[in-house]
Automatic annotation (TrEMBL):
Transmembrane segments: none annotated. Pfam families: Glyco_trans_1_4 (PF13692), Glyco_transf_4 (PF13439). It comes from Pseudonocardia alaniniphila. Residues 146-253 form the Glycosyltransferase subfamily 4-like N-terminal domain. Residues 58-112 are annotated as: Disordered. The keyword Glycosyltransferase applies. This is Glycosyltransferase family 4 protein. PANTHER family: BLL6006 PROTEIN, GLYCOSYLTRANSFERASE WBBK-RELATED. InterPro entries: Glyco_trans_4-like_N. Keywords: Glycosyltransferase, Transferase. Signal peptide: none annotated.
Length: 437
């Protein structure tokens, strides 16, 4: 089975939610594939004392791959006559990549017959993806030709394609397709993310004016993935698809295994400052919490910074304005709690990141946070400033923080990219098998 993963939403600078979801799943799929391949990998190889040469030709797809390896290094070249694309990668004698290139040799796995390959729209995306997986360069997912992208993908002869979004073009496909719905937030909160260009923001608003465009896209797939049971329930409530829906949760990124730091008064917020996130409720609670400071990790505009500061007279706000992963982790592993006043989410990745480090949660009482946080969280009604104050103060009572920290670690162990990858791989195999019948 030949599986293609759409990695075109991977950010070239720093991950957002969809970018992290893609990279996390691909990394786990690569590890799972390597485990299944152990002892059974078969590559048509002619070995000599000086090196090895691998030749693969795909006449049906119009692609030819030639790899020559010598004692001094390796060169992998790909020529795709049908797509008019070419990729070249050179590796040094030490076997490491000398930049952003990746190899494109297809590896067959004896016993499973599976291959996992990546679709990217910018070579720089490969820096966030496993270096040992084949890849193909196609158009951007926001390009005008995206509705017809299947015409290019089908030349690669996949059995099934997985996209971490629901907008991948499907006209003219002859392969299995699995699309993803992360949330339905923007139907209730229609303001588009500010980083998008004006034409994209306009299309965004038009798309979210009605449910039927979503139904058209999802029903053109063979199956649909959501990141939470809460989102799956919303999809069912709105009858957005006739296709089977499978939950493939988010997970924390594998960390360096750092122990808990000594507990501090830090309250950590990681997320955007979109209106539905209601960060103002958190800021408004801070004057009543003199022993704590609110760490706001994400990039923030001067106007939003001024607004939040005005809401917290005498309270302590720490604006990191785009904290590094290292800074975020260091503050989080000693924090009193991770906090969120969000009124709507599809999952809540910071919750599982905090729980993995034993940091308790103080979050709004919405279904998806109940699903993710379990007994590790204190739940507060949306917009309830006094409720957030009480929940944080409760953690300062003897033994409460320690109990919640242990609960956080226990709940956090439910989420891993490996578990999610196994669920996704089983789904992709079912879709491919159903189409083969």
């Amino acid at each position: 089975m030949r599986i293609l993963i759409d990695c075109r939403y991977v950010r070239i600078d720093r991950h957002d939610g969809i970018s992290r979801y893609t990279a996390g799943l691909v990394g786990a799929l690569a590890r799972l594939h390597a485990e299944r391949s152990a002892g059974g990998a078969r590559i048509n190889t002619e070995r000599s004392a000086g090196g090895a040469r691998i030749n693969t030709e795909r006449s049906a797809g119009g692609a030819r791959i030639n790899t020559e390896r010598s004692a001094g290094g390796a060169r992998i070249g790909t020529e795709r006559s049908a797509g008019g694309e070419s990729t070249n990668t050179e590796r040094s004698a030490g076997g490491t990549h000398n930049g952003t290139g990746r190899g494109t040799a297809r590896v067959g796995t004896e016993g499973t017959g599976d291959t996992i390959e990546l679709l990217v729209s910018d070579r720089r995306q490969l820096a966030h993806l496993p270096s040992d997986l084949p890849w193909h360069l196609i158009g951007s997912p926001t390009a005008i030709g995206e509705p017809l992208v299947a015409r290019h993908v089908r030349r690669l002869q996949p059995d099934v394609v997985f996209s971490p979004m629901q907008t991948m073009g499907s006209w003219g496909r002859d392969y299995g397709l699995v699309l993803t719905v992360h949330d339905l937030i923007y139907y209730r909160h229609p303001a588009p993310p500010p980083q998008f260009a004006a034409p994209i923001r306009l299309l965004w608003r038009l798309y979210h004016l009605a449910w039927w465009p979503q139904r058209v896209l999802l029903n053109r797939a063979d199956a649909v993935v959501t990141v939470s049971a809460a989102t799956a329930s919303q999809v069912a409530e709105r009858r957005l698809t006739r296709r089977p829906v499978t939950v493939v949760p988010n997970a924390p990124d594998p960390g360096p295994g750092l122990p808990r730091a000594p507990r501090t008064g830090a309250l950590v917020y990681m997320g955007s400052f979109m209106p539905y996130k209601d960060v103002g409720t958190l800021a408004s609670a801070m004057p009543a919490l003199p022993g704590h400071e609110l760490h706001l990790m994400s990039r923030i505009t001067p106007d939003e910074r001024a607004r939040l500061t005005a809401l917290a007279p005498g309270g302590r706000l720490v604006f990191h304005d785009g904290a590094s992963d290292e800074t975020y982790r260091d503050v989080l592993r000693g924090a009193t709690a991770l906090v969120s006043a969000s009124r709507d989410e599809g999952f809540g990745i910071p919750l599982v990141e905090a729980m993995a480090l034993g940091t308790p949660l103080v979050v709004t009482d919405i279904p998806v946070f109940r699903e993710v946080g379990g007994d590790a969280a204190a739940y507060v009604a949306p917009g309830d400033v006094a409720g957030f104050v009480r929940a944080v103060r409760e953690l300062d009572e003897p033994g409460v923080w320690e109990e919640r920290s242990a609960a956080a670690r226990a709940q956090g162990r439910r989420f891993s990219w490996e578990n999610s990858a196994r669920v996704l791989l089983a789904l992709l195999e079912r879709v491919a098998a159903a189409r083969a019948r």
